[in-house]
Amino acid sequence: MRNYLKKISNPVWFFIFVLLIYLGLLFLDFNLFASSLQFFWKIFIKILPVFILVFFLMILTNYFITPKFVSKHLGEKGIKRWFYVIVGGILSTGPIYMWYPLLAELKNKGLSYGLMACFLYNRAVKIPLLPLMIFYFSLKYVIILAIVMIAVSVIQGILIDKILKGGKK
Amino acid sequence: MKRFKPAVFSAAKMFWKASPLILGTILLVSFLVTVIPQSFYLKIFTRNIFLDSFIGSLIGSISAGNPLISYILGGELLKIGVGLIAVTAFLVAWVTVGIVQLPAESMILGKKFAIIRNVLSFIFAIIVAVLTVLLLGGGL
Which residues span the domain enclosing B108? Predict the structure, then answer.
């Protein structure tokens, strides 16, 4: 039993915790339970089609973008390098920590701290997730936010290079 | 075709792993929005540009997880009257500042780099929020 409990991931524990809140509500305040569930259903039905679109975009990204593809292009020189770092950051998928070993390896091959930071910052702009962001915040907002974030990623990269003197700690 | 199956599997796995978190978040947001009066949020977020963006960035920095969750939370906060600057700072900090991943980032990419990057990302979340809302023409 203890081993089985250990296997349960944090997101599942979180879900169980929320279900327990609802179970408590069911007995303590049925009206609040019903209104909360009604609110949940309203949101869920609204965003379900968006999730389906996000799923298909993720398949496409997983299919075309691999760590090998990204590292190949990060090897470019000069301004081009910044461009590929931005594009690489945007197109990279999966959890952020998955990319740390690759970045450490590229660091040994000459990638500066600034370019590393720029890559990590641009991971915030996730193309497959854009439909949901547009659903909540509008297309105009998403475009402006993406442009500002890309510009800031370069500024942050330059600043980090200056602070860490181009990668020499 | 050889790469297509793993691509579908990987996307499905991500959704499967994230589903308890996504459903749990929507359920929790639904409960909180129903139980907490709108005036409570408006007390925390006072429409002061710097304070709101600072609080938004702070909450986003200590939160972790799939960005999908931050969009749902941010979107619902916006609907109940929280300002766009606070919500934007929250969204940006959620994905650019990684307090939870800081130990791993420090170990693999260097402590000094990880700390400087995260501190700058926190400050830039506030700047990005102000700039985005200004460019959007929403006014401050």
Answer: 37-136
